[in-house]
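Entry:
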Amino acid sequence: MNNVSKIGVALLAGVAIGAVIGIMLAPEKGAETRSTLKKLLKDWGGKLTDFSEEEADELSKLKGTLKAEMNKKA
């Protein structure tokens, strides 16, 4: 994982943690807060899944490139 990816993951984690803390401290009823939190976590889970799939694709491409370069030199 390169530095840009690490920064992206750290940024996403920070935003998610901040959002959860903000919701927990919001002056809503408990049921409303839980509903909002559930929706937020579901949305973020989908975004994280998409992000991890993109990273897996990039790693797969890199693997192919490295194999091709190794075969050229062999």
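Helices lie at 3-24, 30-73.
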